[in-house]
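Report of the visiting student (M.T.), summer placement. My assignment was to run the structure pipeline on a short list of targets and document each run. The first record concerns WD40 repeat-like protein.
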Amino acid sequence: MAAAAGASSSASASRPAAKALKLNSNNLGAFKISKLFGAPLIDAGRSVTSVGFDDRGDYLVSASDDDKIHIWDCNKGRHVKTLYSKKYGVHLARFTHKSTAVIYASNKEDDTIRHHSLIDNTYLQYYRGHKSRVTSLQMSPIDDTFLSAAKNEAVRFWDLRTPQCQAMLPVQGHPVIAYDASGRVFAIALNERPSVSLYDVRNFTARPFLVIPISDDDFLSQFSMPPRMPVIASLAFNPNGLLLVGTAGDVHYVLESFNGHILYRLRGHEGLERVQNEDLSMVSESGASGQECGWTPDGNYVFSGSQSGTIRFWHIPHHQEQPADAPRPMVQNVSPSVSREGHQGASRAVAFNPRSAMMVSGGSKVALWLPD
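After the run finished, the structure tokens were exported:
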């Protein structure tokens, strides 16, 4: 399996070197479904709610609303094991920096976050404190700390080694969170007043050092009056500091995180807000899982699932970082440069392997994509 250009170089020296594949519209256009997994692994009528790769790109974890966690071997393209969380439910499953353990949020009984060993199927730790549903969960890219966010309650900072919350920020609304590539900055988006706030991890409880209002009234007024900002469902930084604001509607945005300017408006896909299913939604009215879009490892393309199942790719033009006092630019419309069909039904959760030319899409089935 070819390595994706832009992947980290910290892989074990014991792994044979793979020929790097520079991602472009031609080879992204050659992606097709290589393996497809549905029932009985995922119960009929149920759906995947999250997907994620481990740091090395060797394994994939998926969570679904049938209370199952699935582990997949990316090198062999096969299912490895199924774990169950029937009593507590499972959502937002994430690998820690070890491929032998995951953290995930509960969506039954309580709102505890669990640290689960994949080796012996035991709980390694419980992280209690949230009093409402966890809507976002992110591992730090640099150490064993992580962030969680719960609606109308708080964003919390944790260390895997201890069950106690290390710090918290009260919030009102439906928060979405993300770390930047350095692990020193994190972002919080709130839908109730569409905005993104940037914080310094080292000064967790201090005020944000930048607040970015997300307003696109002139464009959105073409479709509704008054203009309606679609639900913000996800945030993701690329290695160059651009911030992807994913929405449940038919548009995503790319921001310059240094000065807060909206640079690009990504159009041409069918948003997940048309898929009404409260149990699956990060925000119940949105239909979105919070993983409907993301960056390729090189940070040059945004990819997104859709209501129709089609996977879209947008090439993001090279952008020279501007000073904080630079005039606000005109927002550029960007259309998909690549569209790939084959996923049946809504593609609710998508992810790109951090080290290999592989993509996953999840809905009623899990699809592994490789270039032909």
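Residues 8-18, 277-282 have pLDDT under 50 and may be disordered. Residues 25-28 form the longest helix (4 residues). I thank the supervising group for their guidance throughout the placement.
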